[in-house]
Design goal:
alpha/beta, Adenylosuccinate Synthetase, Chain A, domain 1, binds inosinic acid, 10 helices, single chain, Adenylosuccinate Synthetase, subunit A, domain 2
């Protein structure tokens, strides 16, 4: 059963987009299985650069069908903006070209506002989230109070569910910071309008995929973020709230365990991270500027989603071995080797002297 999964082996931003572009040339379906618009996949084709946050980047190939799996939290505003921007680049995302799982969760402006309030309340212990509302949206999902995309199909109940959701988040925000309450009516109106456009895209992605795999069609699952940001296996609590590792593809798309053929890990020839948390091989000053770039090139190390300069450091093989273990990689792609040109010496971490260089994650060194 031909499901190929592309996973980041670091803290995201490994350059997965170019590997996706290569492999989606021979895929029938391209699918996202985790995260939300915290992700940013940059793909440059000829003169055109596409920056995608929710839509699988493989849709740039006209023969593919894009799928948004149940494992995502979907911000409809971002999704519609992305559909529009692809249209302006000549790629028409119709409901035939993109299918969204009814079981994916909706991420609302209230989730974003709560993310910002929680981060500011954390003060020095802030996670450095992308402020896209990811944590609060997954919290609602896990606490069984979230709103699924499928609820957009029932106009009246949807509107009530959104208003209740905003009221609950208003109370949560009021307990954290002072400020004006969010306008439940306006948010529900906005989402109702978006629902009207998105309804034809909503379907049962799990059943489409299972049938496609049984026919022998090729599916490419694009992991967002990376292994070290995985909720369970990453550098907790400095992680995202989803499962970017390979097993997440099965849960986040609703397909059986036997269908994975390849697990392609992507690593940069050095290491980067945005946000707070441990980084054993981090470097600073002019060396950091060499690895990061100045921001003039699309491949320079500045967040696709937030524009933040990324922290940079040497390649860490302790972490790469760990990512291999967690994901069961069948192969590995190394990106951005050219950036190391002109550096002498080039360093690579092969072991840690300190038994616990990453608080809370002693398992990394095994
Ligand atoms: P959140 O996913 O916005 O909650 O952020 C949690 C952590 O994951 C923060 O350190 C973010 O910087 C990081 N993060 C989330 N998405 C990405 C990504 O696509 N690339 C790199 N880091 C990410």
């Amino acid at each position: 059963m031909p499901l190929d999964v592309i996973v980041g082996t670091q803290w995201g931003d490994e350059g997965k987009g170019r590997v996706v572009d290569l492999l989606s040339a021979r895929a029938d379906f391209v699918a996202r299985y985790n995260g939300g618009d915290n992700a940013g996949h940059t793909v440059t084709v000829g003169e055109q650069t596409f920056k995608l946050h929710l839509i699988p980047s493989g849709v740039i190939h006209p023969h593919t069908t894009g799928l948004i799996g149940n494992g995502l939290v979907v911000n409809p505003t971002t999704l519609l903006e992305e559909i529009q921007s692809l249209k302006e680049s000549g790629i028409n995302i119709t409901p035939e070209r993109l299918r969204i799982s009814f079981a994916a969760h909706i991420l609302t402006p209230a989730h974003r506002a709560l993310d910002a309030a929680q981060e500011s309340a954390r003060g020095k212990r802030a996670i450095g989230t992308t402020l896209r509302g990811i944590g609060p949206a997954y919290t609602d999902k896990v606490s069984r109070s979230g709103i699924r995309i499928g609820q957009m199909l029932d106009e009246q109940n949807f509107s009530n569910a959104v208003k209740e959701h905003v009221a609950v988040i208003n109370t949560q925000i009021k307990n954290i910071i002072k400020g004006d309450a969010l306008d439940a009516h306006a948010i529900s109106k906005q989402l109702e309008n978006q629902a009207q456009i998105l309804r034809p895209f909503i379907t049962d992605v799990s059943s489409i995929l299972t049938a496609a795999l049984a026919r022998g069609q090729r599916v490419l699952a694009e992991g967002a973020q990376g292994t070290l940001l995985d909720l369970d296996h990453g550098s907790y609590p400095f992680v995202t709230s989803s499962t970017p590792t390979a097993a997440g593809a099965l849960v986040g798309l609703g397909v059986g365990v036997g269908c994975i053929e390849r697990v392609v890990g992507v690593t940069k020839a050095f290491q980067t991270r945005v946000g707070a948390g441990p980084f054993p091989t981090e470097v600073f000053d002019h060396l950091a500027t060499h690895l990061r770039g100045t921001g003039e090139q699309p491949w320079d190390e500045f967040g696709t989603t937030t524009g933040r300069p990324r922290r940079v450091g040497w390649l860490d093989l302790v972490l790469l071995r760990y990512a291999n273990r967690i994901n069961g990689l069948t192969e590995l792609t190394v990106t951005k080797l050219d950036i190391l040109s002109g550096l002498n010496p080039i360093k690579i971490a092969v072991a840690y002297k300190d038994k616990h260089p990453t608080a809370g994650s002693p398992h990394w060194s095994s």
